[in-house]
């Protein structure tokens, strides 16, 4: 698995100040997969994404992107390797309209989606191009946050809780978008509390608890692991 992985994480530890949050996280993601990190609140899922991106206080271990070690790199250099994070808080700039928010991140590689391709995925954004970013609905802000990283040319996308607080019809649209991105060859690492949603889009799962990966299984093995999942997640 590790030898063929697009993203290979081994022994990842992370700190916020004196707080030791990750305690040796190990997992891998193959090119073209959708992989979901599962776990209760506080398990370390979001910190794992931020650590991969290099935006925690301190991190040690190994994070390889297509064989390239990133653990000593700054976040801007990691981004240039084709890794993009869509944060849970979305990070929409209030002073910019939708078009300006979309065009803000720099292009780091060929292969990103142009505006017409983005509007094909998110028709709502075409209609709201001149609207202030924070005047959008929660669902439209999430679409904008995802669309913004699709322009950059990054091929490894990390989505943190993309369905949080959204209406069911928007959640369904986000699911269709992830499926279409996978068809286009994107690799997606997903953090998601909505297990029902995750089960419709993911190829594999890693379960986190107390800053470690404690279990892993493929979507095909989901029925056999539902009992353990209920125990892990309290659902």
Detailed description of the structure:
- This protein is α/β, with parallel strands linked by helices and about 240 residues long.
- It has one domain (about 1-235): Rossmann fold (3-Layer(aba) Sandwich).
- It has helices at about 45-55, 75-80, 100-105, 115-120, 125, 140-150, 170-185, 195-200, 220-235, and strands at about 5-15, 20-30, 35-40, 60-65, 70, 85, 155-160, 185-190, 205-210, 210-220.
- The protein has a 6-stranded mixed beta sheet with strand order 6-7-8-3-9-10, sandwiched between helices.
- A hairpin with a 2-residue loop joins strand 4 (about 60-65) and strand 5 (about 70).
- The model has no long low-confidence stretch (mean pLDDT about 95).
Features:
single chain; 235 residues; alpha/beta; Rossmann fold; 6-stranded mixed beta sheet; 9 helices; 34% helix; 28% strand; globular
Brief description of this entry?
The chain has 235 residues and is of the alpha/beta class. 34% of the residues lie in helices and 28% in strands.
In the CATH hierarchy, what is the architecture at level 2? 3-Layer(aba) Sandwich
- CATH fold assignment: Rossmann fold
Question: What is the count of distinct domains?
Answer: 1
Q: What spatial order of strands do you see in the largest sheet? A: 6-7-8-3-9-10
CATH level-four homologous superfamily name = P-loop containing nucleotide triphosphate hydrolases
Roughly how many Å is the radius of gyration? Answer: 17 Å
Low-confidence stretches: none
Helix-strand category: alpha/beta
Order of secondary-structure elements? EEEHEEHEHHHHEHEHEEH
Categorize the overall geometry. globular
Tell me the distance between the termini.
30 Å
Measured by DSSP, the beta-strand proportion falls in 25-35%
Biggest β-sheet strands, sense, barrel: 6 strands, mixed
Instruction: Tell me the total number of β-strands.
Output: 10
Q: Which CATH top level class fits?
A: Alpha Beta
Percent in helix: 25-40%
Q: Treating each run of at least 4 consecutive H or I residues as one helix, how many helices?
A: 9
Mean pLDDT: 93
